Structures
1.
Amino acid sequence: MSSLNRYYETLVMMKSATTEAQVEELEKAFTKVVDGLKGSISKVDKWGKLKLAFPIEHKDYAYFVLIRYTLPGDALSEAPKQINHLLQIKLNNTVIRFANVSLTKEAFESPYKKPEPFIPSATPGHGAGRGFFNKGGASVEVPAVDEA
């Protein structure tokens, strides 16, 4: 098999109530797996708590961590098994979802744009129960709720 390095990133979505100690546990465990496969971690970027596009497990928010790493080509068959085992079995108390992505060298070395946090804001001048929420650059009016 080829010993050329392969480039990857894994985006991990953790429960929104995740503590810093749990994030550190993820980072240490992931580093141990990658080191065991003779790879190296390039970057661990803790994005923090962000709003989800749709609820997962009845939750609207998750804590996001992006991990970029390289692995030798001969670790290709074992890497997915070990990473999936770590995130699905060992850390399943905190991990909601994750995605492993193979990158080109250019994509791996290029900067990426961290997502902007979604912050709902009420617009002054509207009655109670009315407001505007910024949704992808467009303002969406939320109608008042009539309480009988």
2.
Amino acid sequence: MPHATAVAEYRQVLRINSGDTKLQTLAHMNLAGLALRGQGSAAEAIVEYRQGLRIEPDNAELHFGLGLALSLQGKHDEAIAEYLEAVRINPSGAQFHYFLGVGLRLQGDGDGAARQLRDFLRLAPNSGVSAEMIERGRSILAELEKQ
């Protein structure tokens, strides 16, 4: 499905299903993903993630996606806050711990980063994350432990 058609379809879902919060949340999440992939627009993705969070504030995936988009804009403090919220809501989300760890490392919090990466590596085998992501997590943790 071409990008413009997909965007139009999700916008239609938002108009037609204003009372269905699950569909609304999914439509905003998909529009955010399309904004990032189709146009590389982190700003547009941020708007969609925030609209989704107004509907479903305890959605870990929306917080995580918002964190990724904020990180793309260089707003690392805000991204870390969103990753923290994703971990609070869903502590078993391996990818949330990974990105929180990477964000904390970028901010100079090596101890916090190491804790998150250890949690990531503990959760990763049963989470469906890629072998490359697991190896990268191990590599970053090893670097942190040398310091």
3.
Amino acid sequence: MTKTAPFLLGLAPLGLAEVQLELRTLTGDRLHLARRIYRDGSAEQDIMGQRSRARDVQNALRGTGLGSGGLAVIGQGEVSSVVQADGHTLLAYVQEAAGLSRGVLARHDAARVVVADALPPLAATAAAAATQRPLTRRGSGRSVSLTTAMTRDGNLQAARTADTEVFYMAGKQLASLSRKLLAAGWPADSPVSVVSCAGWPNQLHTDHTVDALGGAAMLHAGRPTVVTVGAGAGPVAVAVNVDAVEVVEPAADLKPSRATAKP
């Protein structure tokens, strides 16, 4: 049966694309996976109908040969790359074939959690110094909250508990963060400063508002990102005391003289 594309029927295009995969074993066990990508660049995954992290999906497939770097399916022209792989890649292949890759990943995750607890304050300080935007401001920004936007369960969190909220996160999640901030009560026009790779030579800094934050996802995707929202996100206002400005009259010999024309 031939299916007609939606645009040929006059229907509006969908705002997402979805792929579903169902795996079954010889004993009747079933694993159902689904992934959706939205027009704004955000994505979500399901395992057996339950919202999950991308890492959970990868972990479910590890040891089966179907995960990332698995050898159950080898594409045309990839045999030589397997044979000529370096030692580190061959070790990963052996761990996958022996069913050890899941335990290796769990060990790496545990080490990453220890580092992640110390990263938010360090990254926030580096971003504030690089952009010359202090997190606290006299009169309007006295409280600061530092947090990792992504929880250990893979859920994106955002709140409004301080004058300045600082989130350490992946740049590709900025569109989702925008929706979370609006739901938390941040005004749509609140200033947002986004700095990725803070303190590095490839540092990137952009300014946005909460409602337009999703537009920065493509710019900062794949980069560790610090997002500052609220009082500490805007540039520092420089006040000029007009009364302290001294007006100096030019010397008499430097004043321009009016030329007179002779008849």
4.
Amino acid sequence: MRAQGPGERALRGVPAALHAAMIALAHGGRLAQHHEHHEENARAGDAGAAPSRGATAMSDSTARPRSPLEALQTAGATDVGQVRRANQDAFGEFRDDAKRRHMLLVADGMGGHRGGEVASSMTVDIVRDYFADQGGPPGEFIHAALQLANGRVFDRAASDGQLAGMGTTAVAMLFDTTSEAWVAHVGDSRCYRLRDGVMLQLTDDHSVVGELVRRGQLTAEEARVHPQSNEILRAIGTQPDVVVDVQSVDVRPGDRYLLCSDGLSGMVTDDEIAEVLGSQGPEEAVRTLIDKANEAGGTDNITVQIGLVGEFGDHRDAGASPVPPAPRPGAATRPSEKQVQADFGLLPWLVAAAVVALGLVWWLTS
């Protein structure tokens, strides 16, 4: 027979019911914890844990695109406007699934009877071919594409007297599989981003009025109607070399990007653009913005491209975890499900403790 331990002697003669209550007291906490842990595991399984045998697993790539490239929705269009006889704007959209890249491009041509149209269309064609044939780091890639276009447009203008002095603006945006995109531009064609209701112009206008705005001598609204608003300081093809501004931008789910010629930005305010961009899908927004520019006078050709980035990757990467709002002063608060479960988990302890206490009192006084 095993020798009794000092803690067991006090139990001798205790009624069976009291002994059972004490066992429940000893194990009840662990049982309650096990039950709560089981429910936690069940909830975790619903949130994406490995399915039980016989269930069908769904990969993250099926449930949600993994990168901005896969989540990108685009639309674009160009319009001659209400005044010009010819459309000297051009735009392009290029996608390469093997290289995992997607580019948007807007060009606004200028010069001569048909020079502007030739310069803008040449730029789109040159960049398209470069996109198909070349690779490399995205920032260097997009910079080299516009530099190549500059050299070839300049050579063409130099070899054809009818095209002398022609050139074009250009703004391009390159998406890939990272949470980063690249923007390159020359001239006053623009790239905007709308994020969480806030509109931001990502590019600086290479123009006379753009420089005056940066110096604080003009407001953005004054620049739109200034007599020198169409004078640009840099262009593709007017000089043998050109400075191309290149920048990287972070990309988040829900971002809306807009590339446009000054036929839009010179006729429609940023606030109006933001309202349309934030309330309509890409195709509808493109058409609405062109209509607005025409309704405002349509004095220039109008080109608009929009890229909408849908949900991709782990949505928690797109921002901080949501914080529940603080309760209003005096407002009643409702306990969470976990708090309620925790409160009920103490119940076996309390009942067992009461039974033991009553039993001990009865045993000692009997």
